[in-house]
Amino acid sequence: MNFIDLLKRIPEICKTPETLPLEGKKLILDFVTWLGSLVGIAVPPWVLTLVNILVVIVAIIAVFLIMFALMSVWERKILARAQNRYGPNRVGPWGLFQPVADGIKMLTKEDIVPRNADKVVHFIAPIVMLVPALILPVLLPYGRGMVAIDLSVGILFFFAVGAGSEVAIFLAGWSSRNKYSILGAMRAIAQMISYELPLVMSAVIVALVAGTLSPTGIVEAQGGYQFGFFPNWFVFTPWGFVACVLFYFSALAESNRSPFDLPEGESELVAGHLTEYSGFKYALFFMAEYVGMFAINGLLVTLFLGGYQAPLPFLTFIPSWCWFFIKLAFLAFSLVWVRATMPRFRIDQMMQFAWKFMLPMSFAALFSAAAWHYAGRGLLGWGISAVLVAIPYFALGYFCFTRHHSADNRRYLFSE
Amino acid sequence: MSYDYLLLTIFLAIALIFPLVPLGLAWLWARTLSPAKPGHDKQATYECGLESEKPVQIQFQAHYYLYALVFLVFDVETVFLLPFAAMGFVNIPVVGFLSIMLFLLLLVESLVWAWAKGILEWK
After folding, report:
1. How many domains does chain A fold into?
2. pTM for this predicted structure
3. B62-117 CATH fold
4. Residues A99, A73: contact at Cβ < 8 Å?
5. Which ipTM did the prediction report?
């Protein structure tokens, strides 16, 4: 093997975009072997394993950080367009270098720690927040055969690690010794545990139908096309649609995004648990929130939107990993759209919505999924399942949201 | 299998180091180019310009605790559902399926009870 051969392989790899990332990884490993032969030693296998692992990790972190950087501009651009203005357009072409400028600004800002704060915990909190968010994307299948680790308990691992961010938010709120911070942290915990239930439940339903907890297995279960053109994604079944919507809104609440951004509601709580943070610690929180948001929406794509599968049979010429990121980008756009459109919830409305609507609906979706399966997963099952979901939907809507219509029943609550 | 967990371990180590790098850079910048200038008001707890009074870590309303309790019940329930989920509907015998449904109905009943008791009202 020599260097010229390696160089010649690059155009060949680019000709087959479907396997481009996998072949690229192989190329890097061969390059390491070539480097070893240059020095005159055979590279031991454990070094190759280590290089393989490092390539995977660096690729995942790099992709998600680039997405975070792009998203921070994209979000401001879309919000600006929604509000009839231009948004950032000064730094670089179309304001694309805005994240670089933001990063430099964050790095050079003075890091102010309040006198009363618990300094150690105040320092640890952003790190604890970022670590689980960075690890989550490792489980997602990005394309055919493109999964960093195919854990057989992937879904369980995802939620177990993802719960770490709740601890971090409470650490941040508690250590700041600030009333706004601690109120924000309390609210964040109440909100996140409430919305965790529909989130996990809807994932469990998908796992029950697919018969596996591994994300790759779940994506494979959604392969193929009904009647030759209609994708077998779970979102196109009644129970799957309900579970998908529940998952989407729970994911919104879990990542503390508008309209569920009460913990950071600036009109009430300044910035919630972020009040006493400045400099790069604040940036780390911001980064963790966005990376976590991408990870959980990547899981939504995996569970309901068919992961890396193409929506129509004739579109399979586009590589599978592109489909994953196209769907993720679409979801990211929808998140910003929701943020630009919806007003913030009131806290009692939000808690009621979680406990009195989303949780019972997730149970209904489970029963409906069982009916769908036992009726043979065909059109009959589709109909029964739709009825089983529609009845609780209208009943809950009637019980929860039509009772408090009279004006004198309304109470104004200050934050507590 | 061991490869998976090796990758996770290395990823954990890198994820721990990753935030420390920019924090270290920021510290170096503060150290060399723009030393911190602490002040009485600057380091004070932010409270919209007022002096912060009374301890912050006070008792909170018990309602958060009730939510936590109900959450615990349902979270443990999902943990019990996960082994069934790993098997899937296809592999669960009818008796197993009926027992899940019974279990879920008990939990739905507990939710209804909590609802009727008014635990789910945010006060």
Report:
1. 2
2. 0.88
3. Methane Monooxygenase Hydroxylase; Chain G, domain 1 (1.20.58)
4. yes
5. 0.86
